[in-house]
Design goal:
mainly alpha; 2 domains; Growth Hormone, Chain: A
């Protein structure tokens, strides 16, 4: 009897020790080459595609809006600027919401709602309704970019993060191209209303495929309730970090330079001595294909060589490309735009992935700050570039963009020096 009780106690103690040990065994993060890695990469590629195709699908349609609704060209641009402005505002709110609502569900709802709003815009009976639909579309899209970056940083192994982030950014490049080129082609064939509805339907399909592919979060630490002080402390902690603000500045500067060149290249090429048509200028957006390849290549190179080496290479490539556009020869101008595009996507892929690596915690908040700076660079620097175009022509535009890229290069070198002694960076 005594021996039986002793054996039972020993067995119970052993089970308790095993129970105590089991929670300490953390799940292994997803690594490159595994089925989950491929699913995550494809799902986030679709998220990037949906976000940017929906966001920029109206850009080639602005002249059609001006003609159909009898508004000025400046007023027609509100169909795009209201969306990007609402997106920038929504990113911070989405970061807070994702800490309690979860990652995958929030991204799916955001993608689906934005796609539906794009269809609503296509069916809008008047200009005001279209603008409201586009503003709401941009606002709900805020739930994708910051959350996507945070998901990758939490779930992907550090040595494989660069390639995954590069594929996501490649999806944004593909979406940006399809949103501009595809919508223009659909509009020419079926009209602008059908073009918006078709792009919206593609967005719905991408959202469904996304949620079916993306594995549930394993490393996400859901917060209970809403604590504003927690979010303020999280943002404040990232802003006082030595390296992260430099990455935020890079996002602002490189996006500002990129958008400035793209905004005013059309004005230059439509004027003498080129006199390019709107269709030919629209085809320039097909150079985004080079951005898709560059994003994935940069992510893989960052994993192998280190982000501190690859980021300056991307920024230098963008600077060389911008300077080449000063030539009067069309082939050289196109080559310059290609190099600028490649350098931009390399820089963005590496910098955005680096944010997730440097953020010690609350990665969604860090991603939201980076994307806030990124979209502010588009709106603020892109608009400021118009002053340089008006007063200095194309040399003025490139001077402004060049200064932005040089400053971004200094920031990149600075964050490389800071991160090396403090944090181990993957090879």
């Amino acid at each position: 009897m005594f021996k039986t009780q002793t054996f039972a106690h020993q067995t119970l103690a052993l089970k308790r020790r095993q129970t105590d040990i089991r929670p300490a065994i953390a799940p292994v993060k997803v690594r490159r080459g595994t089925p989950d890695y491929q699913r995550i990469s494809l799902a986030l590629f679709l998220a990037g595609f949906a976000t940017f195709s929906l966001l920029y699908t109206v850009q080639p349609l602005l002249p059609l809006f001006a003609q159909h609704f009898h508004v000025t060209p400046a007023a027609s641009s509100l169909a795009l600027s209201l969306s990007t402005g609402a997106l920038a505002c929504a990113i911070m709110l989405a970061a807070m919401l994702s800490e309690t609502a979860g990652r995958r569900g929030l991204m799916f709802i955001s993608m689906s709602a934005a796609a539906i709003m794009n269809i609503v815009a296509g069916l809008a009976p008047n200009w005001t309704t279209l603008l409201i639909a586009r503003a709401l579309e941009g606002f709900v899209l805020g739930g994708v970019p910051a959350v996507a970056m945070a998901y990758l940083a939490e779930e992907i192994d550090g040595g494989s993060l660069g390639l995954a982030m590069g594929r996501y950014v490649g999806g944004t490049a593909f979406g940006g191209m399809m949103g501009r080129v595809g919508a223009g082609l659909f509009a020419e064939a079926f009209g602008w209303r059908a073009a918006l509805c078709i792009m919206g339907a593609l967005g719905v399909a991408a959202a469904i495929a996304f949620v079916l592919l993306l594995p549930a979060s394993r490393y996400f630490d859901r917060k209970r309730g809403f604590d504003l002080r927690f979010h303020v402390r999280a943002w404040g902690g990232h802003l006082t970090d030595r390296g992260l603000p430099l990455l935020f500045a890079i996002g602002f500067l490189v996006m500002g330079a990129f958008v400035t060149v793209y905004n005013y290249a059309g004005f230059r090429l439509m004027a003498a001595p080129y006199h390019f048509s709107q269709t030919v200028i629209g085809l320039i957006f097909t150079v985004y294909v080079f951005g898709i390849v560059a994003s994935s290549t940069a992510g893989s190179a960052a994993d192998k060589l280190g982000r501190g080496r690859v980021l300056p290479m991307g920024l230098g490539t963008a600077l060389i490309g911008a300077l080449l556009t000063l030539s009067a020869a069309v082939p050289v101008i196109i080559l310059g735009i290609i190099l600028l595009t490649v350098g931009f996507f390399i820089s963005h892929a590496v910098a955005s992935g680096w944010v997730g690596r440097l953020a010690a915690g609350s990665k969604g908040h860090a991603s939201s700050l980076y994307l806030l700076a990124y979209y502010l660079g588009s709106s603020v620097a892109g608009t400021a570039g118009g002053w340089f175009w008006s007063h200095g022509g194309w040399p003025g535009v490139i001077s402004f963009a060049g200064v932005c890229l040089v400053l971004a290069l200094f920031c990149g070198l600075g964050v490389g020096r800071i991160s090396r002694p403090q944090r181990a960076e993957p090879r």
